[in-house]
Amino acid sequence: MLPADLPRNVELLLKKAAVDPPFRAQLLAQPAATAAAYGLQLSPSESALLAAASAEQLEAAIRALVVPPALHEALRHGTPAAAAAALEAPGPSWETIPCTGIRAGPPTATGSRPEMPFTPEPTPIPELTPAPEPPPRSWWRRFFGKR
How far apart are CA 30 and CA 51, in angstroms? Predict the structure, then answer.
């Protein structure tokens, strides 16, 4: 079972395998040899992790990884150092994204409504409990007198 927090070199191998199908086949067949051929120096714990993981576990980890499209080229054709640098590059942060506010969309024809993507199920109405029986008339007479 692969841990949720992968070591950096193992993550680099799996992300490269996610965008490069021939590399993926090599990695699933011979993980340690593929890492050495790619030029990565694996630590003993990273080597042990790759040796302990089955091909099915590696395939599942590769499918679970999300690789941004901007990194595909660096991972597919770059060196391990270039790919690692691309993975380390920070993405946009809230400070760098300009705030433009909310803008209205184009006007629609009068009386037309946008199409709903689905039809919601009707909400069931909860059952009402019946009102309690009124007290006998003699009780009212005692407190309010005859009317």
Answer: 9
Structure tokens at 146: 């005859």
Q: Which residues contact 75 (CB under 8 A, 6 or more apart)?
A: 15, 16, 18, 19, 20, 67, 83, 86
Token code pair at residue 113: 């409504």
User: pTM of this prediction?
Assistant: 0.56
Q: What is the mean pLDDT of residues 29-34?
A: 88
Which residues neighbour 42 within 8 Å (Cβ) at sequence distance 6 or greater? 9, 10, 32, 35, 36, 50
Sign of the dihedral defined by the CA atoms of residues 64, 70, 76, 78, in that order: negative
At residue 91 the predicted structure's pLDDT band, cuts being 50, 70 and 90, is low
